[in-house]
Design brief:
The complex is a heterodimer. Chain A has 8 helices and 6 strands. By secondary structure, chain A is an alpha/beta fold. Chain A has one domain: Rossmann fold, CATH 3.40.50.970. Chain A has a 6-stranded parallel β-sheet with strand order 2-1-3-4-6-5, with helices on both faces. In chain A, helix 1 packs parallel to helix 7 and helix 3 runs parallel beside helix 5. Chain B is an alpha/beta fold. Chain B has one domain: Thiamin diphosphate (ThDP)-binding fold, Pyr/PP domains (Rossmann fold). Chain B is built from 8 helices and 8 strands. A 6-stranded parallel β-sheet of chain B has the order 2-1-3-4-8-7, with helices on both faces. In chain B, strands 5-6 form a two-stranded antiparallel ribbon. In chain B, helix 1 runs parallel beside helix 7. The longest helix of chain B has 14 residues. Classes of the chains: A alpha/beta, B alpha/beta.
Chain lengths: ~170, ~200
């Protein structure tokens, strides 16, 4: 599977580097290595969700209990979680770090992935959720660190959009 | 069986617990018994009280977490029961007050008239669903004595438990809560993170 193991590791290490010890997730192709890394790491609690909105609640609970967490999800997972993001994170001012694999942009071959990506940024903007793209491995650590800092200081959700250039390696 | 009587029965046991309730009648009635900093009232996001409870339970495994939910909320996040069951935190008790109606969001009316019922009114068995989802312990109770015994046993016990209490669809005497949502949001984690020796 041409998902980048090396760059998934860079993302995972950056996430751990900002103190994340609990991750909630649903799988999607680009997330397979990240989720496996969380599963294999005895220092990480992995919560396998049935639907993404639950993860917003799980992260809020972790925050209340003094634990830093992150959510691994895809565009449609983000769209699915909107009510939780509004009714928990935004309403109650709770930090939430979302790592969203950003499908559906240039290079997308799966027809079914071409719709959800179009709305992710406009919806993030409509909710005034700060977001940035992760495209180059060298940017990953500082951007995740800055995102977590802002989430904690502003008590808000933040999103990092994991791009094709970072997550996918075309088979040679 | 009345929700308020059930809450009175467990109230003394909630001292060191993290308590997460849903909005509306449940929050107002627990509040009426005496607010504590370790009570968090989720005033929106129906269905996510148990997910918040799960996040706390996994993060503070030595603290008992009591989620006080309702049938309408649980039905909005049935998948969450499977997430709870597979995560199986042994420090979480999920109490569900089942009044067979969406009382607090306008589905009930003074006098107990039910015009917007939930599917539990036509036979959906939430304790059965929890059991089938994989809860080690799940039961439905209809009498106060049975509730008290089951709930206290679960709170004092050491297993992920779901107790579905069939209660009357009755409005609380008052919805007044003199603690602002944000005040509650900040005092709650302070209580969870500062109580000596519990975590």
């Amino acid at each position: 599977m041409p998902v980048s193991v090396a760059n998934s590791q860079v993302v995972y290490d950056a996430m751990k580097g900002v103190g994340v010890t609990l991750v909630s997730a649903l799988p999607e192709t680009w997330l397979v290595h990240l989720i496996r890394m969380a599963d294999e790491d005895p220092e990480m609690t992995l919560v396998r969700l049935a639907k993404e909105e639950e993860g917003v609640g799980v992260s809020a609970g972790a925050h209340f209990a003094g634990v830093r967490s992150a959510m691994l999800l895809q565009n449609h997972g983000f769209l699915q979680a909107i009510n939780g993001i509004v009714g928990v994170s935004l309403l109650y001012k709770i930090p939430l770090l979302m790592l969203i694999t950003d499908r559906g942009s240039f290079g997308e071959k799966d027809p079914w992935q071409t719709e959800g990506g179009k709305y992710t940024r406009p919806v993030l903007d409509a909710l005034h959720i700060a977001h940035d793209d992760l495209s180059r491995p060298g940017d990953v650590q500082p951007k995740i660190a800055h995102a977590m800092t802002l989430a904690q200081s502003s008590l808000s959700p933040v999103a990092l959009l994991l791009q094709r250039d970072l997550m996918w390696e075309e088979p040679k | 069986m009345k929700r308020l009587d059930c809450l009175k029965a467990i109230y003394p046991e909630l001292d060191d617990c993290a308590v997460v309730t849903i909005m509306g009648a449940v929050a107002a009635e627990l509040y009426s018994l005496g607010h504590r900093a370790n009570f968090f009232y989720l005033e929106h996001a129906m269905g996510l009280a148990s997910s918040i409870g799960l996040g706390i339970a996994l993060s503070q495994p030595n603290r008992k977490v009591v989620v006080i939910d309702g049938d309408g909320s649980v039905l909005m996040n049935l998948g969450g029961l499977t997430t709870l069951a597979r995560s199986r935190p042994n420090n979480l008790v999920h109490i569900v007050f089942d009044n067979e109606t969406l009382l607090s969001v306008g589905g009930g009316a003074p006098g107990g008239y039910k015009w917007f019922t939930t599917a539990t009114s036509t036979g959906t068995d939430l304790a059965g669903i929890a059991k089938a989802a994989g809860f080690p312990r799940a039961q439905m109770v209809r009498e106060l004595d049975d509730f008290e015994e089951a709930a206290l046993d679960a709170i004092r016990g050491d297993a992920l438990s779901c107790i579905v209490a069939k209660v009357e669809a009755e409005m609380p005497k008052s919805f007044l809560m003199d603690v602002h949502m944000l005040e509650n949001r900040f005092e709650f984690p302070r209580a969870l993170q500062s109580k000596g020796g519990v975590n």
